[in-house]
Amino acid sequence: MQARNHVPFAMSCFWLFAIATGRPIDVFGTMAAAIGGLLPDLDHPESVLGRRLPLLSVPLANTFGHRGMTHSLGAVLVMLAVLIGITTAYHWNTVAWLVPPLIVGYLSHILGDAMTPSGVPLFWPRKRTYSFNLFKTFSWQETVSVGVFTFFVVIAGNVTGRILEQFRYQTGLF
Ligand SMILES: [Zn+2]
Fold this sequence. Notes:
binds zinc ion, mainly alpha
């Protein structure tokens, strides 16, 4: 899946997750989900985050190749462990809110790439890749599918209303 589609897909997966778990939908959580949705492509120096963080992306690409380790469930566990480490080292409440949106965004990326024919190595280092083979990366089908999904979540989940409500609650404005 291309980055342009990973971002709305990660955000709408986070909105769905928030609705399902009764969490409020906030702007920062949504942004964290979008970043989580871009993280796995750090294994590609030409990706959105990879271009900005060459110190991470170049060694990751050289060691694992694109759509390797960072696109596996093991990477999710590693990230979870790192995030829990950070949240226990720092004051829990200041960073703990970041964990669910980042993880949901990250998982949405793996799911998104699993929809394309090349699939994802879910159980890396096992080489087997898993794919639903729904659409090719950069195809119009991919953009339309993500667009329809996002539109559906926003409308059916009253996402705009929920974000505004949370914004009002946090800022005390209007
Ligand atoms: Zn990817």
